[in-house]
């Protein structure tokens, strides 16, 4: 009985391969410093977990509307209105099972088979899978590390065909840790108007901008053009609760809500209750996590920058790109050797796009000590120079 070809055509990320290798190494009794996964290392704050428990105990365990409970949609709308400075209502919000589902259903809602979507290189690998699963064609656009991982708009212009419908952007960025200025965002949004595109702005790291305020695409463009995606996973350290959202014009929200039905029926009821408590409760937990991510980024910079290995200083999220071009290994070989010889797990650059093939991504969502020790080992490994390809 054959398995459908869409499965073999799916490009899965190299991060999970490293995770599996690291787990295997640990099983063999060797310790591993984990810098491969983009997952907050903090537990979900207690008052949020409690709200989830309470919801379950009180019988809030049934299906909810497709788009989520109204009170959570309104809470997300209020949060987004405050952070973006534009009025958004619950009708502009659909709650989904994680931002990853928000992304997929958005693409399912706005593109026809064969439509093109501009996708950042380097960028989060799931953008490619989501576009392809929705029947679209990926058109990668390069981000320039020497310009804060920004795009050249003239080059971008040459990539816009009549079939191009949308551009994906992601600031603060996974994998680069880059953020965006208001000036740059305004230029991009003018470009988007001129070329009649939609912007899908993935803002899941919106709470982790180290200097100044987060720049949301929603704040600076006509709401007709912007679809914002975010969620609770990163902001409140809730990756396993699987709760995200789409914020967009009502027509898109109605389409996405309709698509939820055959795929999930609705997001988890107890997770929705927990996230409502997260959004409406004290935000000092978010500030504490942000301070930790900033401190860890500084630790990584202090070790990698003097050695000339940091591609660009991270200004947000919890990632940095490390230059491995003097190693003679491709990024896949490099992360395998790094794991075996130094006990450090990192993600291969290639998995984020062709332009990142001479780099690795480190996640600084690990303890201060692990970030320090992991970066030192990477530096020492790279100082060996041309590592022969013996792996
Ligand atoms: N976008 C980016 C850029 C991410 O890094 C991630 C998670 N790694 C997501 C979206 C998905 O988040 P969620 O857990 O809400 O599905």
From TrEMBL:
<dbReference type="GO" id="GO:0030170">
    <property type="term" value="F:pyridoxal phosphate binding"/>
</dbReference>
<dbReference type="InterPro" id="IPR004838">
    <property type="entry name" value="NHTrfase_class1_PyrdxlP-BS"/>
</dbReference>
<feature type="domain" description="Aminotransferase class I/classII large">
    <location>
        <begin position="32"/>
        <end position="378"/>
    </location>
</feature>
<dbReference type="InterPro" id="IPR015422">
    <property type="entry name" value="PyrdxlP-dep_Trfase_small"/>
</dbReference>
<keyword id="KW-0032">Aminotransferase</keyword>
<dbReference type="InterPro" id="IPR050596">
    <property type="entry name" value="AspAT/PAT-like"/>
</dbReference>
<protein>
    <recommendedName>
        <fullName>Aminotransferase</fullName>
        <ecNumber>2.6.1.-</ecNumber>
    </recommendedName>
</protein>
<dbReference type="InterPro" id="IPR015424">
    <property type="entry name" value="PyrdxlP-dep_Trfase"/>
</dbReference>
<keyword id="KW-0663">Pyridoxal phosphate</keyword>
<comment type="similarity">
    <text>Belongs to the class-I pyridoxal-phosphate-dependent aminotransferase family.</text>
</comment>
<comment type="subunit">
    <text>Homodimer.</text>
</comment>
<dbReference type="Pfam" id="PF00155">
    <property type="entry name" value="Aminotran_1_2"/>
</dbReference>
<dbReference type="InterPro" id="IPR004839">
    <property type="entry name" value="Aminotransferase_I/II_large"/>
</dbReference>
<dbReference type="InterPro" id="IPR015421">
    <property type="entry name" value="PyrdxlP-dep_Trfase_major"/>
</dbReference>
<dbReference type="GO" id="GO:0004069">
    <property type="term" value="F:L-aspartate:2-oxoglutarate aminotransferase activity"/>
</dbReference>
<keyword id="KW-0808">Transferase</keyword>
<dbReference type="GO" id="GO:0006520">
    <property type="term" value="P:amino acid metabolic process"/>
</dbReference>
